[in-house]
């Protein structure tokens, strides 16, 4: 049994797609398929059911997945320690974070990644969602944490992390804070503060216009901290993704009929030509308990 076989199997277990697993592994699909077949022969059992385009893990495959994941993580740590302590080598990655994603969603993962990859040094830069793909393709960024990652570019690989709802943020002492759900009529009566970088702005405005509601902002700003602090101090309300509060004193509630969500994902340039440490970081993103 070789480490490559374990890595190929884990990529297949994550994607349940031989083509996708081969791309993640940086090998051709026939190479990956042969490696999985050899692994099954060595273990004496089938790991993956193959039913046309659909694949799923067998009971044996499910049982060994966590064990293989532990082996892969151990190999990463050994390699990282070797690079860091024996050769004194550091690997630096520049990673973008879209400025509407709250730090607490990312910092826990960063702490985990730095522990798992001792040779890694991260440089984190704020970006807008629209800048992400261009920055990746130009090499200004190695990866980025993005909201509603843009699709359609075969050179960009995307790992979906989680989804979150859009809610109405208000001060904890606000008269509506005790409600389970806020009505559109109640929303229309509130002083509205506008987060200019909010990815939901156009969809929210369209939804309200269709119901003859026009929110006239009392305050507009690109600064998340400023808008949220103003809301916490009672200046008005704003729309905010459910995990994106960065100041104390906020209460978030759903608004009736306004059912909007966004996807948070990690994007990087795909292919085997990317740096090994970037591929390791991406694997940690995919397996993190978001």
TrEMBL record:
Superkingdom of origin organism: Bacteria
Keywords, in A-Z order: DNA-binding, Transcription, Transcription regulation
Any one GO cellular component localisation term in the record: protein-DNA complex
Pfam family, one: HTH_1
Signal peptide: none
Record-linked Gene3D superfamilies: Periplasmic binding protein-like II (3.40.190.10), Winged helix-like DNA-binding domain superfamily/Winged helix DNA-binding domain (1.10.10.10)
UniProt record similarity statement: Belongs to the LysR transcriptional regulatory family.
Protein name: DNA-binding transcriptional LysR family regulator
Species this chain originates from: Gellertiella hungarica
